[in-house]
């Protein structure tokens, strides 16, 4: 609620504050005119009027200093009828923006001020005044508590929706990445096998100059068929990799802070240490990005809300070190395919990936990637 109280005043806030100010002035003037009948001197009545007007003007700052103004209002209300309107507004403001303990403290101070007010203004029928005033105080404070609870509920629902959307996006990206890697690995094996056949049969032709025409024709047909199938497989791989870029853009190392910020918006506390100056190859930066992404996705799935520490350090010639650490639950769900995919991805760039529990009980994902000088 502190951020809401200190944020810049919107058009809606200006309208609400203007209406509140006018109502407080009207209520204060009405109670002041009724209080003029009390057996008090004119000096106290003048102080009553000017103090009430000053407190009404102070309502424009009620979001910034709600408790301070409410306590000042309690003091002024000891002798001022004109302060009744702004006092009620300030009691409600404290209930909206501050914890219930602070609201109860302000309520108690105003209740004591009410008892002093009866003595200062020489009011008749004090029991009825106390009962009526306490009832009004409770109604106003209850209204403030209701507004506070409703705002907190709406904010919680918005946070959950944002968190769910971020988690879904991360999981969708990770799932699509794993699917593409599986297809790419499978096609790599297929292409490797077919190219190996091409090499074998081409080598046989080179080392058998005495082969008959039929044997040469048969080997050539096998080479032609294998080459044709390899081209078909290659077209299929290219078709997979040419999926719409807008759905899954290829990240770079510079996108790492944005990835971390997205996890923070999902409710995951992340501490990022980034110390990797120098021009980094694209494939190394992209691999580092995917390693951090997998670590964050696992943290969101298996340890939501726990602190995640990410350290990325390195320099040209020394390699790049990526470490993702977070508290590990007693049982980790899932089959670990994402971690296996990271190991394979790191191996493609001559790097390595390690993961497991630390002696302190954390889960640690570590990767070393080569960074040529």
From TrEMBL:
It comes from the Bacteria. This is histidine kinase. Pfam families: DUF7134, HisKA_3. SUPFAM superfamilies: ATPase domain of HSP90 chaperone/DNA topoisomerase II/histidine kinase. Keywords: ATP-binding, Kinase, Membrane, Nucleotide-binding, Phosphoprotein, Transferase, Transmembrane, Transmembrane helix, Two-component regulatory system. Its EC number is 2.7.13.3. It catalyses: ATP + protein L-histidine = ADP + protein N-phospho-L-histidine. GO terms for molecular function: ATP binding; phosphorelay sensor kinase activity; protein dimerization activity. The chain crosses the membrane at residues 14-32, 44-62, 69-97, 103-120, 127-146. Gene3D superfamilies: 1.20.5.1930, Histidine kinase-like ATPase, C-terminal domain (3.30.565.10). Residues 180-244 form the Signal transduction histidine kinase subgroup 3 dimerisation and phosphoacceptor domain. GO terms for cellular component: membrane. InterPro entries: DUF7134, HATPase_C_sf, Sensor_HK_TwoCompSys, Sig_transdc_His_kin_sub3_dim/P. Residues 11-150 form the DUF7134 domain.
């Amino acid at each position: 609620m502190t951020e809401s109280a200190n944020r810049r005043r919107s058009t809606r806030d200006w309208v609400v504050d203007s209406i509140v100010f006018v109502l407080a002035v009207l209520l204060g003037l009405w109670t002041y005119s009724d209080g003029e009948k009390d057996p008090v001197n004119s000096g106290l009545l003048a102080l009553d009027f000017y103090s009430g007007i000053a407190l009404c003007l102070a309502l424009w700052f009620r979001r910034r200093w709600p408790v301070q103004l409410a306590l000042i209002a309690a003091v002024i209300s000891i002798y001022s009828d004109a302060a009744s309107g702004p006092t009620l507004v300030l009691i409600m403001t404290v209930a909206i923006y501050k914890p219930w303990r602070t609201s109860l403290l302000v309520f108690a101070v105003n209740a004591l001020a009410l008892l002093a007010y009866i003595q200062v203004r020489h009011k008749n029928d004090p029991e009825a005044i106390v009962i009526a005033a306490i009832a009004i105080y409770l109604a106003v404070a209850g209204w403030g508590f209701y507004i506070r609870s409703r705002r907190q509920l709406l904010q919680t629902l918005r946070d959950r929706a944002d968190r769910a959307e971020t988690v879904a996006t991360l999981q969708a990206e990770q799932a699509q990445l794993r699917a593409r890697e599986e297809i790419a690995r499978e096609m790599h094996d297929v292409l490797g096998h077919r190219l190996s056949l091409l090499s074998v049969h081409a080598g046989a032709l080179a080392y058998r100059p005495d082969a008959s025409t039929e044997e040469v024709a048969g080997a050539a047909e096998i080479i032609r068929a294998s080459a044709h199938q390899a081209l078909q497989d290659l077209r299929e791989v290219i078709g997979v990799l040419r999926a719409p870029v807008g759905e899954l853009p290829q990240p770079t190392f510079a996108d790492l802070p944005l990835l971390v910020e997205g996890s923070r918006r999902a409710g995951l506390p992340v501490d990022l240490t980034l110390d990797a100056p120098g021009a980094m190859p694209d494939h190394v930066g992209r691999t580092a990005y995917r390693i951090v992404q997998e670590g964050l996705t696992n943290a969101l799935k298996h340890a939501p809300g726990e602190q995640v520490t990410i350290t990325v350090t390195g320099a040209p010639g020394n390699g790049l070190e990526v470490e993702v650490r977070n508290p590990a639950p007693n049982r980790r769900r899932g089959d670990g395919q994402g971690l296996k995919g990271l190991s394979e991805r790191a191996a493609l760039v001559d790097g390595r990936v390690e993961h497991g529990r630390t002696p302190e009980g954390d889960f640690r994902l570590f990767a070393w990637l080569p960074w040529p000088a």
